[in-house]
Amino acid sequence: MNIRSATTSDVEAIVHVHYEAVHGTKPANFYTQDIIQNWSPSPTDEFRLNQFRHKIDSGDQIFVVAELENKLVIGFGSIIPSQYEICALYVDPMYGHQGVGTKILEHLETLAL
């Protein structure tokens, strides 16, 4: 597994991971379908894809992705260093409990220091 800086070419994979993490994990049982759908609409939602493109392009947030050797993105995270804030940390549920989130967080911490 490799952790690297995200680019706008990763946006579709990032949105897919976000969707799978929100819709496919146990926390989904705690929220209504309306909340879940607003939190993470369809991974093909053009508005959502453009939101992530803008966030990556703006440079205000630093995004990283975790990818397998075959270049499949299985997780991502983001921080806003100027505000000392972790904005996101999501892992595809198929790769949960394998240390992916920990590796992303450790990488983000090194970028923040």
Please identify the structural class as seen in this structure.
Answer: alpha+beta
Rg calculated over all Cα atoms: 14 Å
Provide the β-strand percentage band.
15-25%
Could you give me the name of the CATH homologous superfamily?
Answer: Gcn5-related N-acetyltransferase (GNAT)
Which CATH architecture would you pick?
3-Layer(aba) Sandwich
E-strand count: 4
Q: How many H/I helical runs? A: 4
| Overall body shape | globular
Mean pLDDT: 93
Query: How many domains, as an integer?
Result: 1
H and E order? EHHHEEEH
Poorly predicted residue ranges = none
| Main β sheet profile | 4 strands, antiparallel
Cα end-to-end separation: 23 Å
The percent range for helix content is: 40-55%
CATH class: Alpha Beta
CATH topology: Aminopeptidase
Major β-sheet strand ordering: 1-2-3-4
